Amino acid sequence: MFSTYLVTALRAIRKDKQHFFLNLIGFSIGLAAAILMALFAQHELSYDKQHPDSERVYLGHTDFTAVGLQIISLSSFKVAEKIKHDSQVEDVFKLVNTQEIGRALSNLVEVEGNYHRLNDFYMATTNILDFVNLTTIAGDITQALSKPNHLVLSEREAIRIFGNNQVIGRTLNHDEEQYTIGAIFKNLPENTHFKFDSLIHMPTQLKLEGDGYVYYKLLPGTAIPSFTKIFNKESNAIFYWQVKNNVKMALVNMEDLHLNGNNPAAMKAGGSLTVLQICISLSVILIVIASINFINLTIAQSAKRGKEVGVRKALGATKIQLVIQFLTESFVVVAFAGLTAFALVELTLPEFNVLMDRELGLNYDSAFTWITVVIILVVGLLSGLYPALFIASFNAKRVLSGDLIRGGTAILVRKLTLCFQGAFSIGLIIGVVSLYQQMQLINNLQVGYEKSSRLVVKSLPSDVLYKQEPNSLFDKIKDLPGVEQITASNTNLTDDMEFSLQFTWPNGEVLNVTQPTISTNYYPVETFGLELLAGRDFSPQFNGDWYFRDDENNRSVSVIVSRRMAELAGYQDVDSVIGLTLIAPGFNNMKAKVVGVVENVKIGSARQQVLPMSLNLGFFGGSVSSDLVIKTKNVDMAALSKKIQKIINEELHLSDVEISQLTDDYANAHKDEKRALDMVTIFSLLAIFLTCLGIFGLASFATLRRQKEVAMRKVLGASRLSIVNLLAKEFLLLVAISIVIAFPLSYWLIGDWLANFNERITQSIWVYFTSAIIITIIIWLTVASLAFKSASTRPSLILRDE
Question: Which helix (H) or strand (E) holds 67?
C-alpha cells in the first residue's frame, strides 16, 4: 500500500516540477539556516559544562559600572579568605596571571640555547582539579602545584618548547634559576572560558593578599542573592573605596561565563548572548516562513488537483486515504529538502565558521543529527497536515462541476500569515539599516586618537620600554623605513583602562570620578595622533619630565591632561592649567606637573563613556607588560611587522610577540555588533526571498480562484494593467497591515539595543518608510508577474467550458 502512495507522490512531483522546486528551494533554505544556527547554539551553550559541579561554581566579579567602567572578572583574594569558611561555601579556587602580579614571574625561558615565552602563564591553587576538568598525561598536577618552581604544561606547550610531551623532570632556565616540569595535561577544549597553557605554584602570601580569578563552589541549594549580599558586605568592610565609589561585587555562574562574562579581564574573548539570541530568533523566523510557504504553495497547487480529488472520491477513496496520500507527497518533498539542507550546510559551513569565528562541524553519527532529522520530519508533518486535510476535504460534486471550494477561513489564515511574513521582512530591513548606521557611527566616532597607520606591538616587558636613557630597541625600530614615531603605552586604547591617578588640584578640587592614566614614553601626542590644545608633548629635551623617585620616596612626574579633566576641575581655559602642580595622594603625594592639554580621548568601545584622562611620562605603576605604539606612513604593514618582529627577537629574545593594527583592534572591540549586522543582513535577504516565495504561492492561488472573473473583465474591455492592479490590490492591503505591525515593534526593539551605547544614532523615519516601500515594490512585482500572465491568457481558454 505504501509503495502505491509513494509511486503516486513521485508521479505528482514529476507532473508539476515547478511547484516541487519552489517548495524544495524554500524549505531547504529555511532548514539549512536552522541547522547552522542549531550547531552554533549547541556549541555556545556547551561552554564549561564539562567541569566538576559547574552548575554551582561561581566566579567573583567587580562591578565598576558606577564609575563609568565595566564589570570585570577579577576580585580580591583577601575577600575570598574572609568568606571561604562561610557555611554556604564548599571550596574556593584561585587563579592569577603571573604577568599581572606586583613582581611578575619570568615567562622568558631558555632550553638548549633557544628562548621561548611561556604562553598563558598562571599561578593556581592546588585544588584546581576540583574546579577544572583536566586530563593528566604525565606526572601529578596537584603535587607539582604544591612545589615552588615546578611547572604544569599543556601538551601543546610541551611540544612547542621541547618537541614532545615526554618531558617530566626536564628543566627550563630563567633569570639564573630553573623551572622543573612536574606534570603535563591534555589541551583545554575550545568550549571553556579557561585559557592557560602553563601553571605554577601560588605562594601563600599571594593567596592572602592578591587579586585574580576567584571561584566559589557553593553548597547545593545556596540562595545566590543572599550570598551576593554577604560577598558585598565583606568586600566593603575591607575596601572603603568600594563604598565611596558605589563599586559592587557580583557572582556569575561558570556555565554562564562565556555569554555573560565577556570583559577586558576575561582569560579569553567570550561569546555574545545578544548575537546568540538574534541568530536563534532569526532562524526560528526563517523556519516558520519556510513552513508557511510550504503550506501556501501546497494549497495553491490544490486548485490544479481539485478534479483529481473529485475523481478519487467518486471511485471510493476515503478521506483518510487521501490525507495519507498527500502527507506522503509532503514527506517526499521534506525528505528531498532535508537532504538538500544538509548539502547546503556542508557547502556554507566554512564561510559560516569564518563569520562566527568558530570551528563547527557536522557529525552525522551524533545525537544532534538524529534529533535534527526527527525535527525535520515533525516540521514536515505539521506543514503537510493542514494542506492534506484541506485538499482531502474537497466536495467531489462541486470540484467535478468546476467549482473549487473557496475555504474563506483558510484564505483568511493564509493572508494573516502573509502579513506576519511582510512584517518580519520590513522589520529586518529596518534592523539592517539601523545596525549599519550605528556601525558607521562607531567607525567614524571621534575617539580623540588616530586609528589608521598605527601598529601596536603587544605585551613587551615594561622595564625595557620605560627607560629614560637611550633605548636601542626604540632606535632600531625608529630607523626602519616608514616609521615616523614610536612610544610606549601600558593601556590598549581600544580595550580598557589599566590604572588611574586621582589628583588634588591647586584650587582644592578632587574629582570624584575614575581618572584613567596612560603611562607613556616620549612623543605620545604625536604617536597616538592626539589633538594638542595647549602646552607641549613629552620630548627628550625636557628630560626633567620623566618620573623621578628619590631616596626619601618623594616622587614627581609630568602629565598631559584631557580637556574634560581640566574642565571638571574648574579650569575652563585650558591654557591656565599649564604649569600647575597636581598632587596624587595615593602615591605618597606624588607631584605631577601639567605640561600639556589634549582633546578628550575615549578609552575602550563605543559603549563606554568619555572619562577625564591623563598621560604620564615613565610612571607605569607596576605594570609588568606594556605595548609599543608605532606611527607609520606609506608602508606595507605586513612587511614592517616582520622587520619589527626580527628586531624584537634580536633585542629581547622574543619570537612570538603579537603585532596588530590599531584599526583592527578597534574593529575587534565591536566585533559583536559587526557580527550581528552580518547575520541580520544575510537573514533579511533570505527572509525576503522566502516571503516572495510565499507571496507567489498565495498569489497563484488567488489568481486561479479569480481566473474566470479576469476572463469576463477582459471580454468587457478591461486593460491588462487594470486587471493587474485589481489582483494586486488585496496584497497591498496586506502590506499595509504588515507595516502597522512592524513599525512599533521594530522601533521598540532597536531602541532597546541602541540604549547599550553611549554614542548612538537617532532612529530615522526615512528608514521605516524606505523599508515599507521596498517590501511593497517587491510584493507588487511578484503579484504583478502572475497577474500579468493571467491577464494575458485568452478568455476563450478559460470560459470555453461555461
Answer: none
- For 592-647, what is each residue's pLDDT tens digit? 999 999 999 888 777 777 888 999 998 877 667 789 999 999 899 999 999 999 99
Cα–Cα distance, 142 to 125 (Å, whole number): 9
SS (H, E, C) 318-360: CHHHHHHHHHHHHHHHHHHHHHHHHHHHHHHHHHHHHHHCCCC
Element (H, E) at 282: helix 273-302
Rounded to an integer, the average pLDDT of 56-74 is 84
CA distance 390 to 327: 11
Write down the pLDDT at residue 558.
93
Separation in Å, CA 273 to CA 40, 284, 387, 672: 12, 16, 38, 10
C-alpha cell at 280: 536563534
Specify the range with the lowest mean pLDDT, choosing from 323-327, 377-381, 445-449: 323-327
The answer to whether 331 and 420 are in contact (CB under 8 A) is no
Position 251, amino acid: L
Q: How far is CA 358 from the centre of its chain?
A: 11
**pLDDT at residue number 697:** 67
Q: CA 302 to CA 502: how far, in whole Å?
A: 77
Amino acid at 570: G
The yes-or-no verdict on residue 261 having pLDDT over 70 is: no
For residue 83, CA distances in Å to 237, 415, 547 come to 12, 62, 40
For residue 761 the three cell numbers come to 544614532
Q: Which of 374, 391, 363 is nearest to 334 (CA)?
A: 374
- Alpha-carbon dihedral of residues 378, 381, 386, 391, nearest 10 degrees? 170
Secondary structure (DSSP) of 744-781? HHHHHHHHHHHTT-SS-PPPPHHHHHHHHHHHHHHHHH
Q: Which residues pair with 596 in a beta bridge?
A: 535, 560
Maximum CA pair distance of the chain? 113
The whole-number pLDDT of residue 244 equals: 65
User: Distance (Å, rounded) from C-alpha 258 to C-alpha 372?
Assistant: 25
pLDDT interval class at 395 (50, 70, 90): low
How confident is the model over 547-600, as pLDDT tens digits?
988 888 888 999 999 999 999 999 999 999 999 999 988 788 899 999 999 999
Strand partners, 57: 217
C-alpha cell at 578: 599649564
The C-alpha atoms of residue 209 and residue 204 are separated, in whole angstroms, by: 9
Residues facing 500 on adjacent strands: 516
Domain ranges of the chain: 54-260, 406-445+670-802, 454-632
| CA dihedral sign, ordered 562, 568, 569, 570 | positive
Cα dihedral 722/727/730/734 (nearest 10)? -110
One-letter amino acid of 515: Q
Contact criterion met (CB below 8 Å) for 651 and 628: no
Q: What is the pLDDT of residues 191-200, one digit of tens each?
A: 999 999 999 9
- Closest CA relative to residue 562, chosen from 526, 604, 520, 615: 615
